[in-house]
Amino acid sequence: MNNNSPIGHSPTDTSGSISQQAALALPSPSVQNQIHELAKTLPPPRKQNIACDACRQRKVKCHQLPGQSKCQHCMVKNYPCTHHAQQATSEKKRISTVSRRPRAYTTNAQQSPRTPEKPSYLVSPAPPSPQPTLSPYSQATFGPPVRRNTSFTDLLAYLLSPPDEVNDVDGYQEPTHRINPWKDWGEVAYKLQDEHFRIEFALDLVEVYFQVVHTRLPFLNPTHFRARLNQFSCTRRRRGGPLHPALMATVVAWGAKFSEHPLLVADRLNSSSRQSSLAKTLIVRAREVAEALKVHRVPAAEHVVIALLIEPLQSRTLPIVPSLFPRFWLTSAIRQLFDLQINHKSVISNIQDPEARGTMIFAWWMACLSDAYGAAYYRRKPQVEDDDYDVDFYTVDPVSMDSDGQAKPDPREHLEFLGYYRAAHALARISRHMSKNLWIPTTDSEGVPVEVLRGIMHQLNEWRVQYLPRVGVPTDFAAEWDFVSAVSACASDATFHIMWIILFNALDDRGIRESLGSPHSTALGLQEQIEELKIKVLEEALHGAMRIAGLAGVPAVMHVSCNYAGVLLARFGRPEVQNCIEGLEQYSYSYEEAADQAQELHRLFTLARAGQTDFAHMASTELQVSPPTQQARSLAQPPSPVGLGNGIYPDARTF
């Protein structure tokens, strides 16, 4: 026996050694208490990060209430609340665990899988493999993989990638259409797997943009844009093209709204709402590309144009308060215009390039008008004040000439020649004045002062005399009336008349201060004057609503006008509301909120016909409504201009 053995056993004798060694390894009770106390001081185990992708990227707290499908941040920002990063981490851990398992050794190097250079999808409905290769834009990547020098083909590969891969509309879900990942976009959407088809499809949407959208929002020069697009897309691997990817994405998204391409037609037929899921996805992805390239942060002339094009592109149907997300891009554009000092005449005059100078002038006026009209429409104070700019001209270059020496102005020059910009600016100043006096706390609590009411009515009447005969819709349409003039006249006419409707709604909600128990209400004859003013506003608002209802059949830019006019007509139970309902139903193919607005008009009209009116301070004027005269009918329903067709045209809905 080895006496050196500590427990009296030979080294080869293991009987009872394990239990004895375990007993010797246990710490004493005092040491156990110390370990227990030390454990109390240690930090808790790291909590698993379950934040969504948007909150991860922006480094904000992800707070999701029970029963909601999105977190609060994504609901407010209208972002897709996805968890691609979390799922990718879990998948990486699973793969790592599997990779550590012993594998059978093989000497055949050719058996190792090789990653394909480009994604390939099977055209045939019966693929040889049940799991085809995914595209590089899979669920593991959040946000657009787009940079300023991204090539044209790579940009289209992202914009037109399958919805269940980027899946930025409905959030993450396990792909169910592995054979045809584009199945949710219609029966022919599988063609998007072909790069040549994607290019032809995108170029078709660009042409739709210039045929439909550019007529109303002429931010871009078609010739220059097409030249830059050729440089951007002529070579498959060309990098650093001069065309901004966010601008290209926005133009493509606009074109998808109004295109009659067979792919989009099949997509609309595939949807119960008659709206294209692909078009909605392109809008979301265009916005994400702009955000990724910091269009909303960095002041630049091209960023201003992109932001002003994105703002009216978006839907106004939101799960939270509608005023939270709209005008984000308009606010960004205005801030950048101020940063670039475009509100100074001297700065604009120093821009040497005529094309760049004209674009910045037009961008300034579109932002200025959109802010003023939007303030009246959505009941907020304007961002731009009357003394924030000294720009008193609209175009600085002569009207262009064609090859025959005849004047061939672009939409900007043509509208200025006809006086539309100056008339719109004059009306915008009135709208700005209305917003600063109607949507303030004192008016909300005390009512609209009668002098403020008189002042607004006087300004609107002056504008009618000075501008409406020149820029409004004439009572008799000329056969040679061009498209730009027709669309602009309808928009100008409707924008003026909607101001009376807004004024009527403000008086109905707020009331007139002097008739709400004010000490000034005892003045002799003041109450009679107030009633006369209320009746006058009612007559103007009702006439304007019927006028807009008559113009609703003209393919112009009257989405907001149709809704405002339709609500007033429906509340009075007027049959003319049917024109507005049909107009909104037509707009619903491109603007999803228009369908809900048409249903609301149906509901209000039914209630009014049943005698259930909801007028407040203007209830005393309800009995003054009389059937429209023959003259009013003729003014409210002008004949349709020749050659305008029956299409839908974009509405700069911030106006």
UniProtKB/TrEMBL annotation:
Cellular component terms (Gene Ontology): nucleus
Q: Which PANTHER family would you find in this protein's record?
A: GLUCOSE TRANSPORT TRANSCRIPTION REGULATOR RGT1-RELATED-RELATED, TRANSCRIPTIONAL ACTIVATOR PROTEIN DAL81
**GO MF annotation, one:** zinc ion binding
Source species? Multifurca ochricompacta
Task: Tell me which InterPro entries the record gives.
Answer: Carb_Metab_Trans_Reg, Zn2-C6_fun-type_DNA-bd_sf, Zn2Cys6_DnaBD
**What are the BP-aspect GO terms?**
nitrogen catabolite activation of transcription from RNA polymerase II promoter
Biased-composition ranges for Polar residues?
1-22, 105-114
* Name under which the protein is recorded: Zn(2)-C6 fungal-type domain-containing protein
The upper taxonomy is: Eukaryota, Fungi, Dikarya, Basidiomycota, Agaricomycotina
Under the heading CDD domains, the entry gives: fungal_TF_MHR (cd12148), GAL4 (cd00067)
Nucleus: is it a keyword of this entry?
yes
Instruction: Describe the location of the Zn(2)-C6 fungal-type domain by residue ranges.
Output: 51-83
Q: Where is this region: Disordered?
A: 1-30, 85-143
